[in-house]
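In the laboratory, one determines a bound structure by crystallizing the protein with its ligand and collecting diffraction data. In a computational setting the workflow is compressed into a single prediction: the sequence and the ligand go in, and a structural description comes out. We illustrate the idea with S-adenosylmethionine.
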Amino acid sequence: MTNSSSADPRQHAPAAERNREPILDVLRKALPASGLVLEIASGSGEHVTHFAAALPGLEWQPSDPNADSRASIAAWTQHEQLTNVRAPLALDVERAPWGIDAAQAVVCINMIHISPWTATEALFDGAGRLLGSGGVLYLYGPYRRHGAHTAPSNEAFDQQLRNRNPAWGVRNMEAVVALGEAQGFKCGEPIGMPANNFSLVLTKR
Ligand SMILES: C[S@@+](CC[C@H](N)C(=O)[O-])C[C@H]1O[C@@H](n2cnc3c(N)ncnc32)[C@H](O)[C@@H]1O
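The predicted complex, in C-alpha cell form:
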C-alpha cells in the first residue's frame, strides 16, 4: 500500500487495481440494479470508487475502522467526482452499532483472513440484520477448501498472516459457508477468481 504524496491521502493498493475488474464482472450479475450497497473494510477506496463509477444506479456506502483508510476513500471519491458514494463510515464489524440500519447488499473484500474469526462471525451477524430477504452478501478472498490450500502461494501467505497475528489466517471455505447458512444465508456456487481467490455470493433467505 502506498500514498500518492504526503499531501494527498489517496492510497494505492496494487492488488485492488488488479482484481477490481474481475470482481466487478461478478458484482454486475450479483447486485441489484438499484439500492444501497454497504462496503465493509473498504481499505484504500479504490474498489468502491471503481464499482460506483461502473454501476451508477447503486448508491455506495464505504467503511473502514482505520482513519487513514477513511481519508483515502474520501479523497478518491472527491478525485473521481462521484455523487453516488457516501462519506466513509468508521465501521468495525465487531463493534455495534454499525451506524447504518439497512442496505440491499453488503460487499466485503479481503477482510476475513486479515482479522480474527470473531470478525467473520460479526460480519454475518451484522449483515444478517441489515439485509432483507433476497439481500446479497458478497465475499472475496483466498480460501482453503476441505482444509487444504488451493495453491502453494496461498499456503505461504497463510503462514505470513499467522506470523503477524495467530488469530488471522486463510479460512476454510466450508466453515464460512456453514456459518452463513447458520445465520440465514444461502451460498451460491463458489466462483474461481484470478490469483487463487474466490468469490462467494450469499443470499439472505
Ligand atoms: C487487506 S485490507 C483489504 C482492503 C480492501 N478491501 C482491498 O481489498 O483492497 C483489510 C481491511 O480490513 C479492515 N479490517 C480489519 N479488521 C476489521 C474489522 N474488524 N471490521 C472492519 N474492517 C476491518 C482493515 O482496516 C483493512 O482496511
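The chain has six helices and nine strands. Keep in mind that any predicted model is a hypothesis to be tested, not a measurement.
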